[in-house]
Amino acid sequence: MVKIQHMKNTLEKRIILFSFIILFLTILASAGMDIVGFRRDYVNALFLRSQSLGTSMKGSIEKVLNLGLDIRDITGISEKCRELVVGNPDIAYCVITDLDGNILFLSNPAFDNFQFNVVIRSFTTNPRQQINLVGQNPAYYDTVTLVKAPDGRSTAQIHIGFKETIISEKVRGMILRSVFILVIFLLVAFSLVVVFVKKSIIQPVSALLQGVKKISEGAVGVRIQEVPVYEFNELAKNINIMSEYLNNRDEEIRNNYQELERTHNELHSSYLKLEHLSQELERSEELYKSLMEDASDAIVVVGDDEIVKMINKMAEEFFGYNARELVGLPLTKMLLLLNIENIPKIHKIFKDASKGMHIAEEMQLVKKGGTLVVARLHANSIKSGTENLVQAIFRDVTKEREILINLEKSAADLVRLNKMKDSFLGLASHELKTPLTVIMGYAELISTDMADRVDNTVLEMVGNISSAASRLDNIIKDMVDVSMIDEKRLQLKMDDVQINRLVEASVKELSFFFSMRKQELVLHLDESIPTIRGDVLRLMQLLSNVLGNAIKFTPDGGQITVATSAKYLLRSKQPVSDGQQMQPVVNIGKEHHLYVEISISDTGIGIDREDQLRIFDKFYEAGNIEEHSSGKVAFKAKGAGLGLSIAKGIVDMHGGEIWVESSGYNPNSDSGSTFHILLPLNPLIGDSTIDYMNLLH
Q: Where do transmembrane segments lie in this chain (predicted)?
């Protein structure tokens, strides 16, 4: 009885708790939707009212402007703004500003220093009427209406706003009312549910539980009385019928007990047979799972008699034939149906696979419907009981084959284009140099020896020609340098080089450009660094190119820092055999060597991550090509894309390394970039087998 009472209490508690949760969530959801809808409608109403008031004020002002007056000369606008705010309690202010945000008229002097151009969030994109969230503590929803002059130009802005807290106060009142109604309705509904549960569910269940407990204890003659609920009453009738049937069965069981003992031995022998069949069934299930669960590829199982035993769903999709069309066919007939080329070879593959060999072969077949497919076949032998089966896995490699062919073709095209580009670079630089020398010579002759016989306008034009030719000459020189670096024809004149003095000379050469751009130059030169071996002119060209890049991409007033220091690097020497095209992967021998590092940092706009990997490529310019400029050091000017490529070539020929570090491109911050140049103390000229790695700090 205690157990029945416990079950009753548990069921009763669960039903009541479930009912309470459902009622609470339903009412809470309804109230929440009402509150959200009320808030949205109230906000929209305030937006519409602000826009309407702004439009009305705009109409009044534009009528006066049409008379030819300037808006600053109109009187009474501030009084009209105050009347508008007084007549609309929800409106906090009415302010009229010019297009730069300077306040012309306002309803309340408290908003004299309010910043209307600091927008937290914008709610519309209409350029004539905008709604923005402005200000902090408190924030205001600001409706902006543009005032047009008689010629159609915007001349002022009307700001009408209301506090964000007005909406919160309205919503808070709505929430309190909703909570009160929620509590009252929940108590009433929950009380009705509790009464209903107790009378219509718990009491009938208790009666049924008591009757069933007695029957389970052996009193099969017990009858359950009628209960008031129809469904439970029908259940009670069925339990009574079951009780009577159990009573009859109990008698029959007692009579047949002896017969069951006689059949026990027969059941035991049947159990042994069933166990054997169960083992066979497990093997069959393993085979089925290996075919169906790993169905990412088309699988075909062929028996010893070369008859198709089974195919999976992926094979049906792959071949275009369903299982009924293929299962039971001889292997040769299936191969003919799929129009596979060289059927004797495929037939032999299945025979070799049945002998335990694992075969992989690529073939072409035709799906149902005529689609040509390239498939890769993997065949191997599997055992099912005493029978050897061949499992053939077909994988669609059509797209892979097409992709591979396209990649090979693209790679060949890229190699050809790269050779054409290098050939064009050398040819263009060589062919342009001679006529350009003639142009520059004649321009200089006219500007000097013939200046007194030529009109001043012509002299100015000749000067422009000379300037343009000089710039083109510099580009051609860069192209020649790049061509010579690529062809490894650039000869270095090695001398002892004081890096600090070289840096000072390079900075002095560019001092005019630092002054023109009002940029601050900071030098941190380590006087303890040793002298290195290098080509002075080429190293000057290297520093000039990198410093020029820093000047161009640093805003006016920015800072550029050049620092020198000594570092140790791990250098790995690799042998090269005669005729070897690529250096080996394995490093043979490692030694520590002293290197000089030159770092050039700026507070410029930075470099994108992807651009950092390609910035030293020929003709590559980071950013948009539309920003190309002919200025040598103009802000964000683009050049021919050869300066950093030449810098890398010079560093490589000195046996060093150059790379750039930057947090990314951001034109609105001073994230900047840092170029690192490493030069060995005594480079091995022309030795491309030196591998620089792992900077030791």
A: 15-36, 175-197
